[in-house]
Amino acid sequence: MKPNDPQGLTEEDIVRLARTMNRELPQGFENELMARVDEIEKKKSAKPPVSPDRSPEPDPDIEEEPEP
Amino acid sequence: MKRNPFQTSVQPADGSQPDRKEALRAAVRKYGSFVLDYLHSLVRDDHTVRDLAQDLWVHVWLHFGIQDFENPRLLRQKAYQIFVSQARKNGTRAFVRFTNLVPDAADGHDFKQPETPEEEEKFASDFWALFPGIQLTDQQKKAFILKHRNGNTLEEIAAQMNVPVPTVAVWVKNVIAKCRRAYTKELS
User: Fold this and answer.
1) Interface pTM, i.e. ipTM
2) Less CB within 10 Å around the terminal CB: N or C of chain B?
């Protein structure tokens, strides 16, 4: 079965799950990951939110049609 | 209503949506070693494996639905995609397994000593919960766990359980086949 086969789990997956599920991770792995997640979260929240009421800026490349 | 076997382990008492970070932490504790082991079978270099696993979990946190955080099939598929993307970025062919370190002589199986009875009990309940409706005897489950969780040989298991070696081999084989069927049935 190819790794991207949409069908369930392979035999290898089941054996691997049995061997590794709930096993302790390498030291610092979880902390490193959570620090990375925190950093991304901080960056996301630092971006100013766009107000939904704000009308879009006029595009300078589009010329307004002259009124008749 | 059909049961979803992939719900996150984090379930707030008030029934509200679980916090994504807490759900991620629970998923990493449960499947972190699974992902690392899978990536290790593709790459073998510990540093690269760690980086790829981190990329995978960040992707899971950013893009997965919370009910899929603990879906081993999706995790394995995404890990493979991330591995291929990384290989493309590095200009290496994905099917070429490269290594910076000399791999161990062993076949990659890294059996740890059995954990405390409580941890093993938690493992057993989490593991069999992935395969709802599976019908196995306690002996079959025990043989499978001794073989694939604890790394015992068939002979050792046969001696411990007082049954012939071929019986143990058949039990273990049947457990895997039934697990696959139960999992596929749950998805369909």
Assistant:
1) 0.82
2) N
